[in-house]
Design brief:
alpha/beta, GMP Synthetase, Chain A, domain 3, Rossmann fold, Helicase, Ruva Protein, domain 3, 4 domains, 3-stranded mixed sheet, 19 helices, 52% helix
Length: 449
């Protein structure tokens, strides 16, 4: 049986990356075999759980083929080796060396989330470009998509992709210096450095000791004048050294209040991608993946019900699935369509039941225009402005996707996205537009009561 295990390893090796093979598969050892069960030893509990979650199916499938029969796989933590000598860690203290023990990756002042990897990201029409650009930047040597700016509302996966880039780079070369930090932490670190006469140390950390900068939530930089100047110099230094730069934000730089034109130009000097609310098909795939991760077995009716209504963001989907599981376990209830609808009522507000047709009627009546003009090619302000307001209200008060909204006015999804962003910006700077939108919102709310 030991020889069979060696042959299984040889056949599994080409199916996964060499690094994954060396880290997980080669670290397992043959312990024993009991009838139709192969018992393998793993270095530690973490490794055992990881292998069980990610490679057990592949190993069992290969084992059946090599062994000409159906075999079960039993993973155990092998007995600890003799106590290893303490080693000097360089500062005079002693610590125990732990081989084969995957550690958390601390980059900058934050840990990379081990679950935020490319293989755990669900790709759909709403995020395909952002995913492709992120992966190309992470794995590409010539850096054709650098810097990368990812625009998305909260809960749509921009942090997932940002950290997935960090993981992929470190998996390829653990010596790369990846700095993952939020704009808020960057500001706080700079303030601390200024107050404690450590500004040179701060500059060295981000200008000369950083190969990849993952800067999250850059919209927080609005109004931070000194920080914007320092960040600008830092980005110039990193760009000149051809370092990789990845930014995430819920606003485009041009829409961030009090952001200098110089910094805005630096942030958007490369590729800009967007992550949108999940469309129906993507929502369905996300729900299926998340339910499997939570060991939830759901009927097709429940999946379709949730996919239809839970399209605000991924966190909403995760919350609904957790609530469904908790309610079933704590109340000893059967997971059926009725229970799913009960959970859904807690996650979908009444305003989300508004139809695009209702918004069209209210907008056209308010602006005194023919509904046909919403779908016309006219770019006159008297037609374009109401059309943009209609798009904005549809995006925020219905479950319609960008494609659905675009079809209703005979436009593509990028035009819809731009029109919505225009109104979002004008609401912040133009009280007249803000009053128009607020009035129409009140009318919509009175319709749904």
């Amino acid at each position: 049986m030991r020889a069979i295990w060696e042959e299984v390893k040889n056949q599994v090796r080409p199916a996964i990356s060499e690094k994954s093979f060396q880290l997980w598969i080669s670290s397992m050892v043959f312990l024993e075999n009991n009838d139709d069960t192969l018992v393998l030893g793993c270095p530690n509990k973490f490794a055992r759980n990881w292998i069980a979650d990610n490679y057990k199916g592949l190993i069992e499938q290969t084992l059946d083929k090599v062994g000409n029969g159906h075999y079960k796989l039993d993973l155990k933590v092998k007995a600890p080796a003799k106590k290893r000598p303490l080693t000097d860690n360089g500062n005079g203290s002693k610590q125990l060396s732990l081989p084969n023990m995957p550690t958390k990756r601390r980059t900058g002042t934050r840990w990379l989330n081990k679950e935020f990897t490319f293989d755990r990201f669900v790709v759909g029409a709403c995020n395909e470009f952002a995913f492709s650009a992120s992966k190309a930047l992470a794995l590409g040597a010539n850096q054709p998509y650098n810097p990368l700016f990812m625009l998305a509302s909260t809960g749509l996966g921009k942090s997932h992709l940002s950290q997935a880039i960090g993981h992929a780079i470190l998996n390829h070369d653990p010596t790369v210096r990846v700095c993952y930090i939020t704009a808020e932490d960057f500001v706080n670190q700079m303030i601390f450095a200024l107050r404690n006469s450590k500004i040179d140390e701060f500059k060295n950390k981000y200008r000369r000791s950083c190969d990849v900068l993952l800067l999250e939530e850059v919209h927080f930089l609005g109004g931070k004048g000194k920080t914007q100047v320092e960040l600008g110099y830092t980005l110039d230094a990193l760009a000149s050294a051809r370092k990789k730069l990845i930014f995430t934000s819920s606003l485009l730089p041009k829409d961030i209040p009090n952001l200098t034109k110089e910094l805005s130009s630096r942030l958007t000097s490369g590729v800009i991608t967007t992550l949108e609310r999940p469309d129906y098909r993507t929502a369905l795939k996300i729900l299926q993946k998340k339910s499997a991760e939570q060991n939830l077995t759901l009927s097709e009716d429940i999946f379709h019900l949730f996919a239809k209504h839970l399209t605000r963001d991924i966190r909403q989907m995760e919350s609904a699935l957790r609530c469904l599981k908790a309610k079933a376990e704590l109340m000893n209830a059967k997971i059926d369509l009725a229970l799913a609808k009960e959970v859904l009522r807690c996650h979908v507000s009444e305003q989300e039941s508004t139809r695009m047709e209702d918004i069209e009627k209210i907008v056209c009546r308010y602006f005194k225009m023919d509904p046909l003009m919403l779908r016309s090619k006219s770019r006159k302000k008297i037609h374009a402005y109401p059309r943009s307001v209609y798009v904005y209200l549809c995006r925020h008060h219905t479950e319609a996707t960008l494609e659905d909204i675009g079809k209703s006015i005979q436009r593509n999804h990028s035009t819809v996205l731009y029109a919505s962003e225009v109104i979002e910006h004008k609401i912040r700077v133009d009280n007249k537009v803000k009053n128009h939108v607020n009035f129409l919102r009140q009318r919509l709310q009175s319709m749904t009561k």
